[in-house]
Amino acid sequence: MNLPPLSQAFVLHFGEMGSRWGVNRTVGQIYAVLYISSQALTADDIVERLGVSRSNVSMGLKELQSWRLVRLEHRPGDRRDYFSAPEDVWQIFRTLAEERQRREVDPTLSMLRDALLESAGSPEDAYAQERMRRMHELIEQITEWFAEVRKLSPEVLQSLMGLGAKVARLLELKERVLGGGRKEPPPAIATSDTDPPLGPGP
Amino acid sequence: MNLPPLSQAFVLHFGEMGSRWGVNRTVGQIYAVLYISSQALTADDIVERLGVSRSNVSMGLKELQSWRLVRLEHRPGDRRDYFSAPEDVWQIFRTLAEERQRREVDPTLSMLRDALLESAGSPEDAYAQERMRRMHELIEQITEWFAEVRKLSPEVLQSLMGLGAKVARLLELKERVLGGGRKEPPPAIATSDTDPPLGPGP
DNA sequence: CTGAACTTTCAGAAATTACTGAAATTACCG
DNA sequence: CGGTAATTTCAGTAATTTCTGAAAGTTCAG
């Protein structure tokens, strides 16, 4: 590996972390190299910095492109592909969240929806189905919330995050000022804690 | 695998998904079996349902315990260990988020902090360090926000999620009502989009 | 103690995943 | 076209991870 010391530490760390994620070491390292590079790099630049095979880099870049985490560009009079990682960290975060949603959450939602349409053929399955319903409900709620939040500009989002839990106090404020002018009526909100117990299974 | 049809589909799916996550197929399946079970199960019950070795189940349960996703209980007059998955889906979500924070985010924050304390020995490293600073900033902000949000009760949290992006409008409302009575002064909020460009590297 | 019931550990086998170099393919230039 | 510079694919190998059965460990009743 051919990198200055700080960069090397960062790249090695991303290699390790990559594995805790859905990507392999090399993919993590390639992304790290691009993230801290001040200019776009060719695949051979990356080979040179990481000391892995050209084909490995090619595959890694392809995977990073499928995550929309790297961008491909070209230079006039140069046939090579140049790769770079978008700079805006908020945008990176958003992209990551979207891709994970697509890869991890959507298939699960879809499986749960299918299972909820079937009719249970045994008491065990009936109970299982009820548990799936609860999981489906949760995931759908979080998914919808996140889709909404994605519409906010980074500025507003940052303000909200800056407020942190104080947002909860805003909620009370709203109640006070607008006097419960919500779409849904204000009866006690159902929570998992207050859901009726499912009762013992078979 | 010895499970009724709906349960089996769910368990198989969790096995697949487990791999996209940081856990292996068996661990995912064990969790799934416990999640949809109406009562606590012994390790041998799980062996029976999944058709994997006893030792594999033992290791998987240990891992799930380290994630705080399963709970161990005992019954009077029975020496065996009984395992169950907590019922409350919100609590499960919270636990997952906390563990991932601990395993994926905290080590990265720590590495970044260390790197930011060093002094860069080359122009490349100086640029890399600046990029790391931006990443550190983002992660820290999101981490703090999440720590705040964790303090909210599930009820309030659900209300907030129900509001979705409408929360942003609350923000404007607050400005209007309270007239900018914030801790921090209200100059334009710095965003990644408006950060000064770092300029070309070396 | 002893032994039965249960759980954990661990070394090696099996399965999976990652990586490489060679060959095939693509893109472009003259 | 033919040639060259680049990228991609792929079959085989290397490395890693997962899984198992056997052995060791633990707990508790008698």
Question: How do the strands and helices of this protein lay out in sequence?
Answer:
Two copies of one chain form a homodimer.
Chain A lengths: L4 H16 L4 H11 L5 E2 H8 L3 H13 L4 E5 L2 E7 L4 H29 L5 H28 L3 H10 L2 H14 L23
Antiparallel strand pairs in A: 1-3, 2-3
Chain A binds a DNA duplex (30 and 30 nucleotides) through helix 4 and strand 3.
Tally of contiguous helical segments of chain A: 8
What's the overall average pLDDT of chain A, rounded?
A: 86
How many distinct beta strands of chain A? 3
Oligomer: homodimer
Largest sheet report of chain A: 3 strands, antiparallel
The chain pair forming the largest interface, with residue counts per chain, is: A-B, 83 and 82 residues
Per DSSP, what share of the residues of chain A sits in E-state strands of 2 or more residues? 5-15%
Given helix and strand content, the structural type of chain A is: mainly alpha
* N-to-C CA distance of chain A: 59 Å
H/E series of chain A, N to C? Answer: HHEHHEEHHHH
Unreliable runs of chain A? 180-194
